[in-house]
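note to self: the first set is below, dont mix up w the second
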Amino acid sequence: MKPLFELLKSLYRRPVEWVCGLLMAAITGVVFLQVISRYVFHHPFDWPEELARFLFVWVALLGAALALRRGAHFSIEALVNRVSKRGRWIIALLIHIVLALFILTVTIKGFALALRVREQLSPGMEIPMTIPYLAVPISFAVMFKYILMDILKLVRGRGES
């Protein structure tokens, strides 16, 4: 049986993957609509380019959260591989704690900024800029959840990894 935190990770990962897939499909549809309206009907809409840009930001940031979950971000292991197993564990734990603090800071500041721009409207769609700005704190909140699960796994596996 999977440990509880592994089960929670997988339950949380699937919806994020689905949202990313749906957003990519939406970007494709919106860009296709813009191309058809511009080059076939010679009457382009104002909003598709802006919507595609906002959706792309959401996909990129949620994708970064998924990459964090999978351990796919860039890392240099040349120095870490030279220390003992316990030393690697300590370094990994310290890196995860620093990363968690950074992610938490970006999440908190991102929510504050998203609330600050709630009166500002986007030029093309005239939606509150809070919607695209929320991509940062929501994605970083997902990352924070993933990094906490990784810290828990490191602490439970004390020196094994």
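second set (the one i keep forgetting abt)
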Amino acid sequence: EAQVLRGYQFLTAKPMLLVVNMGESQIKNPPSFPYEHKNSDMVALAGKIEAELAQLDDDDAQVFMEDLGITAAARDRVIASSYTLLGLMSFLTAGPDEVRAWTIRRNTPAVEAAGAIHSDIQRGFIRAEIVAYDDLIRAGGMPEAKKQGTVRMEGKTYIVKDGDVCHFLFNV
């Protein structure tokens, strides 16, 4: 059935993110809506409060959020929900000058993830050095992570996980 409908682009078949603006008094008990759509999510936020939070430095904003009972900034919740609904995730690359996040679809093999960076890397893919973000931070850097044995060598079929730090080895 889904195969037949795929070419029609019905709005009801698209993922739907509802962003609901509420008052400050509703922060602790956000409203719920009986919305029946199989691929949807709702993010309730207090727009006025979020605008004020955006003007504060990080430490002051964190204290203010704790006082109001806000667990995460609305911007972060909207992005996370969008990624989930669209089936997206991020992996990281780290070099001496730059750390960068790359967005790919969930369940993407390493060779295709390499293609998100550059088609030459995908074409000449040999293998990927993979370390989980938390393991890399705990180790204090890639050389230390290698010494601790948390860096793995993976091939083309490895399914990249959300938050993996990848170093792709290739030859073109």
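remember for set 2: The chain has two domains: 2-85, 88-170.
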